[in-house]
Amino acid sequence: MDKATGYRIEQCSAWYGQARVLWDIDFHVGPGEVVGVLGRNGAGKTTLLKSIAGVLRKQTGHATLNGRDIGSQSSWQISRAGISLVREGAILPKSLSVAEVIALGARLAGIRGREPVSMATILERFPLLSGLEDRKVALLSGGQRQAVALASGLASRPDMLLLDEPSAGLAPTVAASVFRAISTFAADGVMVVVVEQHEAWLRGLAERTYWIDLGRVAASKTNRSDSEQQGGRNEIAS
Ligand code: ATP
């Protein structure tokens, strides 16, 4: 991959207190690429997203976004540089309306010096939210909350979106509609990293997949060509 574009982190390690959770992970995402992250419960998938977003107290690694060194930056600086971490919709503030949550994302776009994505575009991408703009988060279904979390991430005009189990708790048909929306982000050139439990659900969405096991990249796979590399390597070929 061209080092001046895309995202790359090398030798990423992370700790919770004294406990080391990630071990020397090399990971990259190309422009407009969707990359999946799979692994068992407790493997370190969420911790990898948190490390990329810079939210952990103790982490190491050399990270670049579009050729710019962001490795030593704070979570706020990393966010301002263009990386948005979208957590589960379940943790959205319940007293806010759909439009207010999306407006928070739009405000971040402004801080990044970018035009926010219009509400019309957002509703086109997330038909699930049509007519719900004034509804409070507390009154939404799980799928609707997940869509609001993603819509707010999209409104922030990120270079890269980090999505932590966007299908969690959703019926397959709702998850499919959320995944359809995600694939439109990539079509706009946004880099997308999706942590997912179900490998089958990533098919057709992620171009490449990293398998995390015990905090290391145990395998990686290019989904389009079905070429696979197993064990002992911490990165797939650029
Ligand atoms: P899951 O699929 O169950 O969400 P995961 O692959 O996302 O799992 P992580 O949440 O990254 O796994 O957790 C990796 C390891 O770090 C686990 O052993 C977990 O118990 C531990 N861990 C996660 N969060 C914390 C924390 N805040 N403090 C201490 N240990 C943590």
Strand content: 25-35%
Radius of gyration: 17 Å
Q: What's the overall average pLDDT, rounded?
A: 88
Largest sheet: 7 strands, mixed
- Global structural class: alpha/beta
What small molecules does the structure contain?
A: adenosine-5'-triphosphate
Q: Largest sheet, order of strands side by side?
A: 6-7-8-3-9-10-11
CATH architecture: 3-Layer(aba) Sandwich
Q: Specify the CATH class.
A: Alpha Beta
- H/E element order: EEEHEEHEHHHEHEHEEE
Question: Mind sketching the topology for me?
Answer:
Blueprint: E1 7-16, E2 19-29, E3 34-38, H1 45-53, E4 58-65, E5 68-69, H2 75-81, E6 83-86, H3 98-111, H4 119-125, H5 142-155, E7 160-164, H6 172-187, E8 191-195, H7 199-202, E9 208-213, E10 216-222, E11 227-230
Parallel strand pairs: 3-8, 3-9, 6-7, 7-8
Antiparallel strand pairs: 1-2, 1-4, 4-5, 9-10, 10-11
Helix pairs in contact: 3-5, 5-6
This protein binds adenosine-5'-triphosphate (ATP).
Adenosine-5'-triphosphate (ATP) binds at residues 16, 21, 39, 41-47.
